[in-house]
Amino acid sequence: MKKSFIALSTFLTLVLASCGGKEATENATSTATQTASVNFGIDTAASSLKWKGSKSEEDFHVGSLKFKSGSLTAQGTDNVMGEFVVDMNSIKVEDKEMPDDKKAYLKKHLSDKDYFDVSKFPEVTVKVNGYKDGKLSSTVNVLGKEMKQDIPVKMTNDGSKVTISGNFEMDFKDLNLEGFKVNTEKPDETIKSVVNYELNLVLNKK
Question: The whole model's pTM is what?
Answer without folding.
Answer: 0.81
